[in-house]
Amino acid sequence: xxxxxxxxxxxxxxxxxxxxxxxxxxxxxxxxxxxxxxxxxxxxxxxxxxxxxxxxxxxxxxxxxxxxxxxxxxxxxxxxxxxxxxxxxxxxxxxxxxxxxxxxxxxxxxxxxxxxxxxxxxxxxxxxxxxxxxxxxxxxxxxxxxxxxxxxxxxxxxxxxxxxxxxxxxxxxxxxxxxxxxxxxxxxxxxxxxxxxxxxxxxxxxxxxxxxxxxxxxxxxxxxxxxxxxxxxxxxxxxxxxxxxxxxxxxxxxxxxxxxxxxxxxxxxxxxxxxxxxxxxxxxxxxxxxxxxxxxxxxxxxxxxxxxxxxxxxxxxxxxxxxxxxxxxxxxxxxxxxxxxxxxxxxxxxxxxxxxxxxxxxxxxxxxxxxxxxxxxxxxxxxxxxxxxxxxxxxxxxxxxxxxxxxxxxxxxxxxxxxxx
Length: 421
Ligand SMILES: [Zn+2]
What we know:
The protein is built from twelve helices and 22 strands. The protein is of the alpha/beta class. It has two domains: 2-193 and 365-420, Metallo-beta-lactamase, Chain A (4-Layer Sandwich), CATH 3.60.15.10; 198-360, Rossmann fold, CATH 3.40.50. It is globular and about 65 Å long. Bound molecules: zinc ion. Zinc ion binds at residues 58, 60, 142, 163.
């Protein structure tokens, strides 16, 4: 048995790990770096005929985005995920195909075949792919439907945390920890810092939004369509945002999908009430009306790379009464990064200063540094921990610190590396 790191090692992007069992291979995620309309980075190509199954841990494209690539031939491997992840993956992958279909080695027919090969399984129920290969999904607390995976092969327990969060949020509950895993593959997105207290950040966001709206301004809150949009929507209502709350773009479809899976949503009633209170935008006329009002506007894309948030940005950036409130990390090179850190946007071919108030609130759905160590401290006797989904130099620095403190064999693999288990 061997582990092969097919992507997403020493970086955040095309996450994929292969568990090779002789000629057969079980894939844990098969992601593509989000393309934003550019050619995306794919994981190492695998012969689909060797694939005995692919687990999608959650719907984010960096974990699911290359799965349709496995459906170019007549053979269709089983796609194992929670029912909510399957539905949300379909939504996001359709959008990716619309945005960047010309760069991708697959299209809608492959996505369709992927969806019809879905095997929805619930948390804590076991699926025997073979007599000696058993898969269990556990709640990962990252986004609704997200899972960590345990693969048991001949008595050895391999736990892939995927993206994980160990605090309760509106939509998700703290992740399950698999104490008796032998081999752990752990995400390390924030191996270099801790997040501030979640509830304090939520209150600060709404206080700021209320202050802006009391002075007549509109707040644009660019947010990922899945999870962050709905978390912000519920937060605004829970902490009494006074004005109208706009929900726009793909966040609407994502909200409807989540509402149809009550058993995967921590506070489903809060989501239901919030969705009823929100103004669902259907036309440009409505958008033009609300953007002039003291409102809070939740719209993807979260990094202002497209979608309705980019449209609203042009309407709000020039007026100091308005605000642009970020609720997620902005990747360098994105428009969101420019607005947040440089306070400029390109408008009509020129760099124009942003007059609106700009701020950032940390509503991360990943564990921070201390929580990563806490997860490790709960493991009974791990043979080895592989760290993935994190960038250099942080991930290697963390591995060294981690090794010294715990004595555990901590490895930071490279893409393409193979480890015998
Ligand atoms: Zn994720």
